[in-house]
Amino acid sequence: MSLSLVGNFEEATGKWTYSLSGEVDIANAHDLREELENAYRKQAADIEIDASGLRYIDSTGLGTIIGVLGEMRENGHRIMLKDVRDNVKKLLKITNLDKVLC
Amino acid sequence: MSDVIKLIVPGKPEYVGTVRLTVSSVANKVGFDIEAIEDIKVAVSEACSNIICHGGASSEKNNDYYVICTISEDSLEIVVEDEGAGFHLENYTAPDMEALNEGGMGIFIIRALMDEVVVNSVINQGTCIRMKKYKKSEA
Fold this sequence. Notes:
The complex is a heterodimer of chains A (102) and B (139). Chain A is of the alpha/beta class and 102 residues long.
């Protein structure tokens, strides 16, 4: 199950932009956490994630995003998921996370 | 008569995706639509993750868990169970989504996606998550 997370800090907009694709579950959620935490440590700013290529995510993956977001919210920063597929959107809705992440 | 497919899976995170693919193939064979197959995939994956998180501590037993799919004409029942450490089911409460906690969402998600869900867990004996989804009847 592959996960790809590619991104950089955009000076112009002052935020991190990432493209997340593949599948996120218990096997690779820690990779997602590591990447996002490292980015935020390097430059504390909002993180925008293009999720159009994200085929699957479960509660482990969502929990990871929430965990990173928890630290960011202390500084008033956000994580935003963009172009989320319908199946992922359904999960965000069930868990009420659509209100926080979309 | 029902057909039964049984998997014995090592209790390691890297095999959850394998279970997910296998069960989605079974659900497809049963004739569920794409949305229902997605629901089943997520629910089974959550159950496996739960078992892996709460399972391994019982060292004298093996670390494997079992996924049993029972195919009926109108439904698919999936049981995910182990003989691991188990957890205190009475301590489980539905997560407070406003609180943005990292954990505790798995069982909540399974209950939202499947038609029938029964969770049993006994300390040092294991956990059993039994879930069932019915095929929508043709209108």
